[in-house]
Every structure is written in structure tokens, then in C-alpha cells.
Amino acid sequence: MAEPAPAHRFAARVYWEDTDGAGIVYYANYFKFAERARTEWLRALGIEQRRMQAELGVVFAVKRCACEYVRPARLDDAIAVDSRVTASGGASIEMHQTIRRDDTVLAEIDVTIACIRADGRPARLPPVIRHALAAFPAKSH
Fold this sequence. Notes:
The chain is α+β, with helices and mostly antiparallel strands. The chain is 22% helix and 39% strand. Strands 1, 2, 3, 4, 5 and 6 form a 6-stranded mixed sheet that branches. It is elongated, with a radius of gyration of 16 Å.
């Protein structure tokens, strides 16, 4: 069965700073690509994280993250991160992110991001974020 169309695609390129001595992307840097993709996904929804913090008093923090490494990305590769919401709850969003080079899957990341207040305690997703998420076919739990 074909994978559904991505909710958001973020294009990137692999630079020296992303790689180890052999020119292969260092494993932890896949999480950086995924983080940048989530930030740009929020921007595409009209949500700027600095404004969210200043005006709503909340931020997002990664609660859980798991990565399946499939193939290596290498220096100068043009890659893309496809991000899809898979579920949302009262104070969290679950996403699946696929990092690709052309049609080749390089890594699959499942991440849960939690909405938290400045004191680190959970906070309900603000209505503006819930409204933006309504455009995505995610199941609620």
C-alpha cells in the first residue's frame, strides 16, 4: 500500500558539519533535520514558536523519539524530510517523519512532542494550534 502524501516536506542538503570523518551523516544529526522540518511545518501552519512562547506562554518539547536508520545519507546529498501528524491529544502531538534521498528512505522517525509551560509542566494545546491541526487527518486519543 502506498504511503499517504506528506503533510509537509522540508528540503535540506548534507554539509560537512553533518557528517563524520567518512562523509556519512552522524546518527544524531538526523534528529536535527527532523527538528528543522517540524519547525518549518509549524511555520507553514502560521505558528511561530517565539510568538507561541511570548503570547501563549507555551513551547513544544520532545517527549519521546525513536529512529530506524535504513540507509546512510552522505556529504552533498539533497534530502527531504516528510512530516505527518499521526495523532494528537490534549497536550501532545505524535508525528512520523521520513528522511529521503530521492525515493530512497534513509531514516524513519516517530516523535511525540509535548506542549509545556515555562515551568516545564504540561499544558493543553492552545486553540490556535488545535485549529491548525484540524486540517490534518490525525486520530485523536
